[in-house]
Amino acid sequence: MGTRKIVVLAGYEAVKDALVNYAEEFGGRGKTRIFQNMDKDFGLIHSRGENWKVMRRFTLTTLRDFGMGKSSIEEKIIEECSYLIKRFESLKGKPFNNTMMVNAAVANIIVSVLLGHRMDYEDPQFERLMTLTNENIRLLGSRMVGIYNIFPFLGFLPGNHKTVVKNVEEIFEFVRNTFIKHLKNLDENDQRSFIDAFLVRQKEVNEDGSPHSFFHNENLTRLVRNLFVAGMETTSTTLRWGMLLMMKYPEIQEKVQQEISKVVGLAQLTYSHRVQMPYTNAVIHEIQRFADIVPLNVPHETTRDVTFRGYFIPKETYIIPLLSSVLRDKTQFEKPDEFYPNHFLDSRGNFIKKDAFMPFSAGRRACAGENLAKMELFIFLCRFAAEVHFLFSSWSQ
Ligand code: HEM
């Protein structure tokens, strides 16, 4: 059995150097056995080489195209946020656990992009998809999955690693049934969803007779699941951190509310308002920095031998570019362990960008949903602050 080398990169300078200046060399994807079983080399998150390049380009262009025009992603976010706020209000200020509700709202935005329509929160199929996804996120951190990743020959034993793969199969089955339906009603001139856009590319390539197309069903099922999983847990966890921090710091919350009423007033809040709202923008950046929700990043892998900062690192080394060490780097942030929105403001209150703000990682492999996530965070958090006062009012009492 061959041993596998692992390299951990820590601190802003080293992480940025590897991910940005040595993007090609450090741009592979490190995979544990369980992910290899689920995605093989297909989809986006766990693929490599030419397959990854084609899937990434397609994903970014399609998300960008759906970002514009009628029924844009922004409208979907605004619509879903209204559903969520109605649900909060229906509880009339009684205490409740918001986890599943926020999860469902965020999941529905990505569902709406993928399928072209939202699903009812009570739809049993929607509930099942969320249950399977949440269960897998939990099981992936379990002891048995960890053991299986190190000693795959123990895979014959019963345990969580088997449940994870079974759950993923059920999600694939749902995706397959869905795209078969989409294929029946496909109108090339009226593409309503990410799946439609993929199927149109599939048809074009098939008509060209190209034998080596990447637009096959294996890639479609993985890509849809990748986007659903990557887009749900991350954004909803950040939103819940945002609520918590707003409750803990009512004086910061109040300043956000004042800026919203000054800039937006009674108009419909849109993403473009953020340029006039430096304080709110700084608070949201600080929420992401402080929450640090993907501390270890997603593992990378070297695509070739490289000498990096005097160290020789062979091809196919498993790389962990620690985002936590960047977001809390003392040389980049004045008060790294405090919640301090001034990290992103100059002395005159203007918003300032920081290169070390890397919650989405950096370089060619950085989060493919960054723009979507930023839009979701801005619209949801501003509307919570402006409309859902009871949520934020009671921490300090
Ligand atoms: C606050 C929300 C989010 C955070 C903090 C976040 C963070 C990350 C991070 C750290 C990575 C790994 C980057 C790397 O390997 O260097 C990643 C990858 C990825 N994210 Fe996100 N993400 C968020 C939301 C989303 C959303 C909404 C989507 C869906 C559209 C998404 C889709 C992806 C995909 C597809 C990848 C893999 C990219 C690749 O391998 O080329 N993420 N994300």
UniProtKB/TrEMBL annotation:
The keyword Iron applies. Pfam families: p450. The keyword Transmembrane does not apply. Keywords: Heme, Iron, Membrane, Metal-binding, Monooxygenase, Oxidoreductase. Its cofactor is heme. It is found in: Membrane. Its main location: membrane. InterPro entries: Cyt_P450, Cyt_P450_CS, Cyt_P450_E_grp-I, Cyt_P450_E_grp-I_CYP2D-like, Cyt_P450_sf, Cytochrome_P450_fam2. Belongs to the cytochrome P450 family. This is Cytochrome P450. It comes from Staurois parvus.
